Amino acid sequence: MTHPERLSRRALNRALLERQLLLRRWKRGALDTIEHLVGLQAQIPNSPYIALWSRIEGFHIDDLTTLVTRRKVVRLALMRSTIHMVSARDCLQLRPLVQTVLDRGLTGSFGRSLKGIDLEALAAAGRGLVDAQPLTLRDLGVSLSRRWADRDPEALAQGIRARVPLVQVPPRGVWGDSGAAACTSAEKWLGRSLASSPSLEKAILRYLAAFGPASVRDIQAWSGLTKLREPVERLRKRLRTFVDPNGVEVFDLPDAPRPRENVDAAPRFLPEFDNVWLGHKDRSRVLSETQAPRMLGSGGLLMGSLLVDGFVAGRWRITLTSNQAILAIDPFEKLASRDRIALEEEGDRLLAFATDTAVKRDIRFGASARR
User: Fold this and answer.
1) N or C: which end of the chain has fewer CB within 10 A?
2) Angle in degrees, CA 242, 269, 94, rounded to 5
3) For 225-236, b where at least 16 C-beta lie within 10 A, e where not — what string?
4) What are the pLDDT digits (tens) for 272-285?
5) Cα(153)–Cα(163) distance, rounded to whole angstroms?
6) Burial environment of residue 193 by CB neighbours within 10 A (0 to 12, 13 to 18, 19 or more)
7) Which residues are within 8 A (CB) of 356 and not within 5 positions of it... i.e. 6 or more apart?
8) Considering its fold, how many domains does the chain have in total?
């Protein structure tokens, strides 16, 4: 009996970077990239732009803005019940698959507030309101409370978020002009129905193409779904198996790229909540347990992550004034001279992309260092 090959932490890291299009910038379209990655984390409106800029050669803001305004991509609650930007067709396929995730989140946070309410009637009422006119969740809750006067408006609105596929309409998601997150139903916005029988197995295969090799627990952590051992077992004959450094079985597509451990990885600035370090239960392939809490900045705000040699090595944030843009880089450890120089070069490119109207640009390391 042959034993599965053991993959090192660096091997898993290089495989992830290659699948996530981060070992080098690629010449490919924004829509194709978003679909390859099975969506982009998008709680922060500008995050998908930074994510694509870090992956696509020659990416421009308008490349994504056009997709948003033409309804080719949408923003809605999907995996882990968090806001993702996905293609229109992925919205219709993925949203039904994660319905149980949103139901579970609703019960956990607002179950008591909604006890006794007919959720089907609530969903129908909410759908009628947002399809007549896109509404913010606040305004939706206020409108619903006219019928359910004894209930918390926030809970009512969250009930609609969970039971109706709400997409955030432009200008939300448009760089520099996001506005409040007004929502309508995906069916209304796209003029199509959700998939009646979406394939969970196909979604798992797509996850592995973008995040593999990965364990069952990794797939569950990415999606928010539970009890995925059975569908993975159904796919076993189509997959290759390995073990990670802890001896955990991980699965992968047989022909998926798995680069050598010593392949160079250029520095990258990734946005807040990037799925590179949120897409697995075991994040050690890119982020250590001790580093995770350090991703939070002052006031508990999550900062962008900084990759050096493929691993999270610090955090970053851009601060804008009336005529100046400052890129603050906060490394977790002292940087080698060559890494600092490479980060300054990449930081210059980031500032040019994200702050093209700034009169002056500056890069600062740590608390007081400045270029």
Assistant:
1) N
2) 55
3) beebeebbeebe
4) 989 998 999 999 99
5) 15
6) exposed
7) none
8) 2
